[in-house]
Write a structure and sequence with these properties.
This is DUF1415 domain-containing protein. With about 280 residues, this protein is α+β, with helices and mostly antiparallel strands. The protein has helices spanning about 1-25, 30-35, 40-75, 75-90, 100-110, 130-135, 150-165, 175-190, 195, 245-260, 270-275; strands at about 90-95, 115, 140-145, 200-205, 210-215, 220-225, 235-240, 260-265. It folds into two domains: about 1-75; about 75-275, Endonuclease, Chain A (2-Layer Sandwich), CATH 3.30.870.10.
Length: about 280
């Protein structure tokens, strides 16, 4: 860069000197021997003035080059993400309904962790292939949290859905849906290579959940358990960043229920559920 600036200065200096020399040659009549028609004096004076100006401005051009170099070193995208986290708490957008295709792509491409918190997962079967790919191909960890099918909370949720009226949700059997999820997860576990089976973890909790969560690496889809229907049928808030304000809050809630939960042995989930004891959890 320094060599380039030096060359620019030399070139401008030569150009500047050429103007007066040309004028002198014209006065002495030497220019007529080279160019009989002469060169317009005004043009030469203008060119000389411009060249002198540029020569004086070289230092400022160097300053601009330094600014460009500093801007190149800035991580603009990272700065934008930090500002977005600061102002929006990590919220990317609110989907009016569950973005099934988007979530399937996120799960399929997950490299670290996939996590789901639900009472039961209405769309689990549509995500099983993506979960298997995340586990087998990407070596991601998959953690699933479901409501204990024998919990008293099941009847409460069942009653709420029944009272919603006029929707498919009122006809659901919550306990049967949870058990169907466990059966499907047991089958997925059996299909996985032995070394990969440990990356699929399922726990059940005996508590009132505060939110439904789908996570794929640093992306979350979060919704509320509403009285008018299933959480998956309500608007979904997409959040980016496990360390963003909203992302950290969601992750804390998931981790709390995960600690309170009991691990399901997917080799025989029915026996595992029957042997569980939640009397000492305080949940």
């Amino acid at each position: 860069m320094a060599v380039r600036h030096q060359a620019e200065k030399i070139g401008l200096a030569v150009t500047t000197a050429a103007g007066p020399l040309t004028i002198l040659a014209d006065v002495l009549g030497l220019l007529d021997e080279v160019a009989p028609n002469g060169i317009q004096m005004v043009t030469l004076l203008i060119l000389t003035s411009v060249t002198v100006f540029l020569l004086l401005e070289v230092r400022r051009f160097e300053v601009l080059d330094n600014v460009d170099r500093r801007l190149e070193r800035l991580d603009v995208e990272a700065t934008a993400e930090r500002l977005k986290d600061l102002h929006y708490g990590g919220v990317v957008q609110v989907h009016p309904e569950f973005p099934a295709t988007h979530v399937k792509a996120l799960v399929r491409e997950a490299r670290q962790e996939v996590a789901v918190l639900q009472t039961f997962i209405p769309n689990l079967r549509s995500l099983l292939d993506e979960c298997q790919e995340a586990i087998s191909r990407n070596e991601a960890r998959v953690r699933i949290l479901l409501l204990l099918p024998t919990s008293s909370v099941v009847s409460l949720r069942q009653e709420v859905l029944r009272e919603a009226g006029g929707t498919a949700a009122e006809n659901r059997d919550v306990r049967a849906d949870i058990e169907r999820n466990l059966s499907d997860l047991g089958q997925l576990h059996a299909r996985l290579p032995v070394r990969a089976q440990r990356r699929l973890e399922v726990r059940v909790y005996n508590s009132l959940p505060s939110m439904a969560v789908y996570r794929a690496d640093s992306r979350y889809l979060v919704s509320s358990f509403v009285h008018s229907g299933l959480a998956i049928d309500s608007p979904q808030t997409e959040i980016h960043g496990t360390e963003s304000v909203r992302g950290a809050e969601v992750q804390r809630e998931f981790d709390t229920l995960w600690r309170m939960g009991r691990t399901v042995d997917l080799d025989d989930w029915e026996l595992s559920i029957n042997l569980m004891d939640f009397t000492n959890t305080g949940a």
